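Deliverable D4.2, example record:
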Amino acid sequence: MNPFFRIFTLSICLPCLSLFAQDMTHGQGMVGYTVFNSGSINFSENSRLQNEVSENGDLPGLFTVGIAGFTALSNPDAQTQLGAELGLTFGFGGEVDSYAFSNGSGVLRVDSNMLLSDVFTGLFVSQQLGEKARIYLAAGGQLVWANLESDFDEDSSLGERIRYSVSGSGFGFGVYARAGLEFNYRNEGTLGIGLRAASSSVDFEGDIGEVDFEALQAFIVFTQKL
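Output generated by the structure prediction step:
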């Protein structure tokens, strides 16, 4: 696992968590979708017909929900606010067909589905845009948990066909950056859209091994002053 993720996450998360001894000023709900820019999984130990098979397909997109809380480090009623955030996201569902070739000896088809969750914390800055809207930026670290299940359908050049499954779960660390635009709704609430980019590395148990995730998430967000 990339040591940078561990060092950065711990150095950012621990100070931010201590800030939540103060009262939270805002709460946020998120509903959206996650797509993966890249991902690779090494299944070489699981191939029963080939000595070395590598699968480099797309990971499944995930429906994602989340919550977050904010505590202000500056005047919570100021036009520009600085603060810390703490949140949780959970992604579920999705399947993908992917294919791999190894030395011309056969074809491996893989159907994968995944659960992906993270606890994130970091620093944010928000800016009021007149009386009707605000924008915000945030960045920090993640503690990531994932569960991956893959079904294999393997054909060899000898005409043999074998089907089998591999599953596993694991934890890892990552970093994220996000931004949003929200408009005043009612009762000191705002409604808008948000984007989050995240990069993490998860060490799965068993034969799956380490998986690197580079994700882009789009959300509909609702933020309420507490």
